[in-house]
């Protein structure tokens, strides 16, 4: 259909879904970013991931639309990606936190030519932010929160408080609402709703449930809150939430706790429990921490959020985007417990 294209969701917690969006839903934000970040035809973009992932596709098309140079490096190892970034003096990098960690691990040295590092696809933890600053000493490290369906929702910068994903991206409206759709007071948790000129036009598998993209507002599927200054704080995906002893548990919060303690990769999954309803199970590779160490690290968590089991796996399943493949990890967990 003229004026539209198709792309895929990440598929981190379910099968990837094909969605349709208008060209304008992305080109509008290309122009916003050019203005925000002073992008010119003298810039050189770096794309680390496969173009099947929406973040990689977006950054590739933004570079072409704005007339910048472009490096497509998805077929290279991280060390060779870093070498190309340095050799070609790339200035703009879009990446996921995982891609950034891999680049930092295997790069032969800093990448001073980068002036903007834009992180999306997952939350940027403090340890990875520190790595980014060491790897890219001359770059402003920016984090955006968004989704394949909505594109940009919020954008953070150096003034954003820790734990926040920033304020609303230009021309985007964010509303936090109760379960009955009423807007809640600042600093109150609720469902995240978004109204945006960058939203998608609908899912291609029309027989499946949708985010109701034809409505003015889209329910993002996320739980969070907005403070008095307009900064958005995310609690976790509603679809990943489970209960332990009738209390809500958001796996993302537990994962962030362990990441701050140096445990990475890490994922928290629910396991049925006859007494508690569910219990939290922590899964990692076991490369750097013993079970006793992991148990000790969990002492700062609320009782219902403490993992009851600690499982190690060989290798770590990832999607093309670099995100953890939670479905594959859950299958491995079922085979072990």
In short:
The chain has helices at residues 23-37, 54-66, 78-87, 97-106, 126-135, 251-260, 291-297, 326-336; strands spanning 4-8, 18-22, 44-47, 69-72, 92-95, 116-119, 140-147, 151-156, 167-168, 173-177, 190-195, 202-203, 218-226, 232-237, 242-244, 247-249, 266-273, 277-284, 309-312.
Cα-based radius of gyration, to the nearest Å: 20 Å
Q: How far apart are the termini?
A: 48 Å
Q: Percent of residues in helical segments?
A: 25-40%
CATH superfamily of the largest domain: ANL, N-terminal domain
Helix-and-strand structural type: alpha/beta
Spatially, the strands of the biggest sheet line up as: 4-3-5-6-7-8-9
Strand content: 25-35%
Number of strands: 19
Low-confidence stretches: 208-214
In the CATH hierarchy, the architecture of the largest domain is: 3-Layer(aba) Sandwich
Mean pLDDT over all positions: 91
Let me know the largest β-sheet.
7 strands, mixed
- The number of distinct structural domains comes to 2
Q: What best-fitting shape do the alpha-carbon axes yield?
A: globular
- CATH first level of the largest domain: which class? Alpha Beta
CATH topology of the largest domain: Rossmann fold
